[in-house]
Amino acid sequence: MHTDFSLSGRIIDVHNREIFPGTVHVSNGHISKIVRAPVEASRYILPGFVDAHVHIESSMLVPGEFARLAVPHGTVATVSDPHEIGNVLGLKGVEYMLDNGSKMPFKFYFGAPSCVPATPFETAGAEITPADIEKLFQRDEIKYLAEMMNWPGTLHRDPLVMEKIALAKKYGKAVDGHAPGLRGEQARLYASAGITTDHECFTAEEALDKLAAGMKILIREGSAAKNFEALIPLLPGHYHNIMFCSDDKHPDNLVEGHINLLVKRALAKGNDIFQVLQAACVNPVEHYKLEVGLLREGDAADFIVVDNLEDFNVQATYINGQLVAEQGQTRIALTKSEEINNFNTAPKAPEEFAVPAASATRIRVIEAFDGQLITKEAWAAAKVENGFIVPDVAEDVLKLTVVNRYENAAPAVAFIRHVGLKAGAIASSVGHDSHNIIAVGVDDDSIARAVNLIIQSRGGVAAVGRDKEQLLPLPVAGIMSAEDGYKVAEMYAAIDRMSKEMGSQLASPFMTLSFMALLVIPSLKLSDKGLFNGDEFKFVPVAETD
User: Fold this and answer.
1) What is the 3-state secondary structure (H, E, C) of 292-347?
2) Is the pLDDT of residue 224 over 80?
3) pLDDT value at position 40?
4) Of 43, 498, 45, 516, which is closest to residue 277 (Cα–Cα)?
5) CA separation for the pair 214, 189 (Å, rounded)
6) pLDDT band (50, 70, 90) for residue 2
7) What domains sit in the chain, N to C, each tagged with a CATH number?
8) Which residues contact 123 (CB under 8 A, 6 or more apart)?
């Protein structure tokens, strides 16, 4: 139900690059007129923020709960790739996201997942075919072909990849990219296939190559991957082709802030406010053809109110003229959501995680990096006890496992450095992209206990210490909760704290852990089928002799 009202303040007109005192008149969910006139109010009125690329599932919340947590920060819309739930439940999972999001006073726009399963080197729960993609493109909420992670297939013009891109062109949809590290001629060749964006740049030089190839660059700052500092210097020269995104945002971080934090940081660096808001508000709407208002007469009444241009505290958020957040508090009601899942594996015994030593003298080790999705391949001396290779806690070499959650199978086991645990284990069924169970720990008993907590709850995040266990159940597809998002954030924060008390130095241990199975990001990752070299796209052995 729409209410007619007016709101006065200093109006930020991004398109005409001016700030003026005036009054915004709202009627039937749209801006009927904007009147310039002296006003007493010192607040600022501006377009709402759009997250240009996010996986809602990574918040561990169903769309409705994500919206409740996002609107106090001035977010009015998201461009969301539902490939996480797509990997678990296929088309049924994507349709769940569309249905759940449609019940909220929030503007969710989704892409048709392009790479489900992400690779043939892991076990996923489902497949999304070109026929499924075409079916999705016939829905208004589907605005684009979601990130084309198969960049080798794109470069080599793989027929299946090109069929999916051709469908996007047929329906007039943008095609999102995902091409970490591509430079020069490779970047040009990737873009020439029809790819329009990339959110994987971790250096300005890489981003400049992709801009030169005609792609738009999304500056990403999420819970794990943080590229803002490296890329924000590009804004002044390329603000028409820059957007802001989070990609993956854990619930405790979403409570703290969203795109508003990037806007504030960009302004604090002295960037022009109109250029910053071009990236945060305008560019995603225009690129993806979103039905989101940009504070013009006739637009949908999607706008926010902030106190000043330094602190940038969001005082109110309006979507279609409805007040959805005020003074940091959400006004969207908690809504009951159904639970769908795909979880079919039995509990595991500690001995299933043992690694026979044979004659091995050294092991490949995944080197994880705080704030990055990329890893490196390293080597360590094999620590052998009773004929088995075991973690070397003193050298920060821990055991990593990926357990197939769709069927009973032997766990894949490898080793990892820089997680930092001194005791126990942590585990999660949020394991990009196929969402098998992924765990890291200092001994097989702890790993088995953590993995079995996840299996018993058919999804979740768990930490197991010497005398303590914590579990956050995620019964929706094994990756989300339909409970109150603020309570989920509290529970997640408690498990996060426990993992750090157990020794992890990572800013977001569970987010980093979740990406250790993401095979499409170099260099060394682990799938449920084994240790995988992402540079050469092939499996490699864990242990070797000198």
Assistant:
1) CCCCCCCCECCEEEECCCCCCCEEEEEECCEEEEECCEECCCCCCCCCCCCCCCCC
2) no
3) 87
4) 45
5) 11
6) low
7) 48-290 (3.20.20.140), 350-544 (no CATH)
8) 404, 406, 407, 409, 434, 436, 527, 528, 529
CB atoms within 10 A of CB 112: 30
Report the half-sphere exposure of 103 (CA within 13 A, side-chain side).
Answer: 16
- Name the band, by pLDDT with cuts 50, 70 and 90, for residue 1: low
150-164 average pLDDT score: 95
Report d(CA 427, CA 440) in Å as an integer. Answer: 7
Residues 6 or more apart in contact with residue 305 via CB below 8 angstroms: 7, 9, 43, 44, 45, 314, 315, 316, 317
Residue whose entry in the numeric block shows the structure tokens 């790993």: 447
Handedness of CA 12, 17, 18, 23 (dihedral sign): negative
Cβ–Cβ < 8 Å for 382, 391: no
> What is the average pLDDT across 415-427?
98
Candidates 504, 433, 530, 495; CA nearest to 82 is 433
Considering the entire predicted model, what is its pTM?
0.94
b/e sequence 367-383, b meaning 16+ C-beta within 10 Å: ebeebbbbbebbeeebb
Q: 524 is written with which tokens? A: 């060394």
Strand ranges in 172-275 using DSSP code E only, listed in sequence order: 174-177, 197-198, 216-220, 242-245
Place of tokens 């409740």: 68
Q: What residues pair up with 197 in beta bridges, in sequence order?
A: 216
Length of the chain: 546
What pLDDT digit, counting tens, does each position of 73-91 carry? 999 999 999 999 999 999 9
> Residue 272 — left, alpha, or beta (φ > 0 → left; ψ -120 to 50 → alpha)?
beta
Residue 31 pairs in a beta bridge with: 26
Q: Are 389 and 397 in contact (CB under 8 A)?
A: no
Contacts with 348 (C-beta within 8 Å, 6 or more apart), sequence order? 403, 411, 448, 451, 452, 455
Query: Judging by beta carbons within 10 Å of its beta carbon (0-12, 13-18, 19+), is residue 339 exposed, middle or buried?
Result: middle
pLDDT of 537 = 87
Query: Rounded to an integer, what distance in angstroms lies between the CA atom of residue 81 and that of residue 287?
Result: 15
What sign does the dihedral 222-518-508-437 (CA atoms) show? positive
Cα(240)–Cα(257) distance, integer angstroms: 24
